[in-house]
Structures are given as C-alpha cells and as structure tokens.
Design a protein that fits this description.
Pfam families: ParA
GO biological process, one term: iron-sulfur cluster assembly
Number of helices: 13
Number of strands: 14
Keywords: ATP-binding, Hydrolase, Iron, Iron-sulfur, Metal-binding, Nucleotide-binding
CATH topology of the largest domain: Rossmann fold
Order of helices and strands: HHEEHHEEHEHEEEEHEHEHEEHEHHH
CATH architecture of the largest domain: 3-Layer(aba) Sandwich
InterPro entries: FSCA_dom_sf, Mrp/NBP35_ATP-bd, NUBPL-like, P-loop_NTPase, YlxH/NBP35
Radius of gyration: 22 Å
Helix content: 25-40%
Subunit structure: Homodimer.
C-alpha cells in the first residue's frame, strides 16, 4: 500500500526545493506497463543539495522495492533539470507496513542506493586481493587503523582501494579529508582519490545528519552495491573497514568475495580481547586466514616528558595471538596526534610519519605488503 501522506508531508524548511516540485518530477518517471511511480509510492525522508549534487532519500513499500529501484535512473534525470543540480542521486529505504507478513527476498536483493542492478558477472573482477579490518567490539580504533594501513600499503608501492563497510557509522571519508559526492560514470560510482589511494564510503552519499535506520537486508544490500556498483578498477588490494562484531556485513562480505585474509584490531584489556577471540573464531570457521592481531592504544606516551603509561594494560593482544597461534602484527600507542589526524583528515602515516604511531603503522603495512607479494608469487 502506498505512503498516502507523501504529497501532504512538507520537506524541512531548509530543503533546497518545494515538495510539490519534487513530486512533479518524480511523477514523470513512470513504469509504462503499470503506471507505477516514485511519487505515488514514496515518502521523502530527506533532501539535500551540495555543490550541485542532489541527494533525495525516499521510504518505499518493501514489496515494491525492485520495481521502484528500476525507476531511479529516469527519476534522477528528471531531478537533474532542477536549477543548480548537476547530479541527482535517489536512495531508497524499504519498509514493511505494520502487521504485514514478511515477503520473500527478491532475486536481485535490496538496492537501498537506487540505480539499476548491473548485469550478472564476477564481483570485483580487477581486484587482486581483499583484506578485511575487523574488531570484535567498537571503540578500539579499527577505522583509524584501516585508514593508516591502507595509506601505508600505498606508500609501500601497492595500488590500494579502501571501502568503508560500516553502514551505520561511516566515517572514513572524514578521516581522509574527502569532500563532496563521488562522480557517476556510465552508471557506476567512481571511488575518490586521497593520499595515494582510492576510497568509497556511504558517508559521501548520504546526509551526515541522517540516521541509517536499516535492518539486515538493507544493510547487506548497501554493502553489495558498494562492492558491485563502484568502479574499483584493478587495485593490488582492497582494504575493507568492517563494522564491529560478527554480523550481517561480515557474513555478506565473506559470501560475496574471496578474502585474502583478515586483520583483527583490539586494545590490551581483557574485555576487548574476549571479543577479539570471537572475531578470530568467526574467520577461522569460514576458512578466512587471520593475517594477525594489532594491539591499538597499547600505551600512552606523554607528549611533554615522553613517559609511557599503560592505561589499558599492555601486551594482552600479543599473548592472545600466541595463544590462538595467529601472527602478532604490532603495537600502536595512544597519542593525541592520532586523534587529531582523524579530525583533520590527514592520516598519521602522512602527517606525522616519524611519530611513534606513524612508525608503528608503517611497520605493520610493510609486513602486510610483504605477505601480499609473497602470496602472489606462491
């Protein structure tokens, strides 16, 4: 059943265009056979305009998601006739009406970012290796590690892509200093270049203030689109920053790609190591090699006197790696410069390569690069 309050629900006061104008343009893209349109079935959740790039988020009935997704390219072209709009992107969020029975998944799956499903073919055909950066729990510095490892691998002479698969909390675009929206060429998103690598994050496609209130199928659909709808080219390695835990995104990535391995990030204290064990166990159960553990926030180094303090203990990850018979990749200290680098958009390996943190990540990146090259020769 359509969202009948679409036409009467106004956009926010700071929205770039009137609701009636958006409705009129969406209504011009109709299915010729059924008359179905995004205007009749959708409900606006957000609308923003940034440097000529319009992002419109619509809530739609779940049972019509596949048919409405097919209308997005034509509707986007209509929206691009608005003054000041050069590129329009429509993102769909599917909801099941209250009390309605669950529907079987459609063959093409959910496509929350809109667009037409690409023709069947191998996923990531040009990518030589995919590495996951994972953690059993949040707050251990996994994304900071993923950014510095990816850039560090690039500094080792590898061609690197970086995918932000943390759908509910995308942040890599900010940590890399990326601005604006990615280009779309021949229906495929182009990853953005920064610090010698290419990267893609959902944070570049949505309003930063918008909450991603998506259930598992929508999350997995977004991950599939970030893998298959992005023109990743031919990198030597694609580094994937996973969300915390061992849930849908992890399983979707394992099912869709041939992972070369996983890097597990933990802090030294026991409560973090418990979850790190779960992450290692998950990858081992699905036969993905664990490339090693990293102990982040291993110690605090005073910027004034140089004295080190083990705020969260020390050496726990090394001991855990030995107990689980997986490699230990190294220790990274807790430094104010590392926190500042995430806010400034300049990775530590670039902005402060001779700092303790910069040297630690460069060493870990060198070890991983050597492993990748050895694996390629084997």
């Amino acid at each position: 059943m359509p969202f009948r309050n679409y036409r009467t629900r106004p956009l926010a006061q700071n929205a770039p265009f009137p609701t009636d104008e958006i409705t009129r343009l969406l209504d011009m893209a109709r299915d010729p056979a059924t008359g179905l349109s995004l205007a009749a079935e959708g409900q606006v959740q957000s609308c923003s305009l940034d440097n000529g790039r319009l992002l419109l988020t619509l809530a739609i009935p779940r049972d019509k998601a596949e048919a409405l997704s097919a209308l997005c390219p034509a509707a986007s072209r209509q929206l691009e006739t608005l003054p000041g709009v050069t590129v329009a992107t429509i993102m769909l969020t599917a909801h099941r009406p209250a009390g309605a029975p669950k529907q079987a998944a459609q063959p093409q799956g959910h496509r929350p970012l809109g667009g037409t499903a690409p023709t069947e073919g191998p996923l990531l055909p040009g990518v030589k290796a995919v590495i996951a950066v994972a953690s059993g729990k949040g707050g251990v510095g996994k994304s900071t590690t993923a950014v510095n490892l990816a850039v560090g691998l690039g500094m080792e002479g590898l061609k690197v892509g970086l995918l932000d698969a943390d759908i509910h909390g995308p942040s890599l675009h900010r940590m890399l200093g990326m601005q604006g929206k990615p280009e779309v060429v021949d229906g495929r998103l182009q990853p953005v270049q920064a610090w010698g690598i290419t990267a893609m994050s959902l944070g570049m496609l949505v309003d930063e203030k918008a909450a991603m209130i998506w259930r598992g199928p929508m999350v997995m659909g977004a991950v599939n689109q970030l893998l298959g709808d992005v023109d990743w080219g031919t990198p030597d390695v694609l580094v994937v920053d996973l969300p915390p835990g061992t849930g849908d995104v992890q399983l979707s990535l394992i099912q869709k790609t041939s992972l070369a391995g996983a890097v597990i990030v933990s802090t030294p204290q026991d409560i973090a190591l418990i979850d790190a064990r779960r992450a290692v166990s998950m990858f081992e159960k699905v036969h993905v090699p664990v490339l090693g553990l990293i102990e982040n926030m291993s110690y605090f180094c005073c910027p004034n006197c140089g004295h080190t303090t083990e705020l969260f203990g020390h050496g726990g990850a090394r001991q855990e790696a030995e107990a689980m018979d997986v490699p230990f990749l190294g220790e990274v200290p807790l430094l104010a410069d590392i926190r500042a680098s995430g806010d400034s958009g300049v990775p530590v390996v670039i902005g402060a390569p001779d700092s303790e943190g910069g040297r630690a990540w460069r060493k870990i990146a060198h070890t991983l690069a050597r492993s990748l090259r050895a694996g390629r020769k084997a």
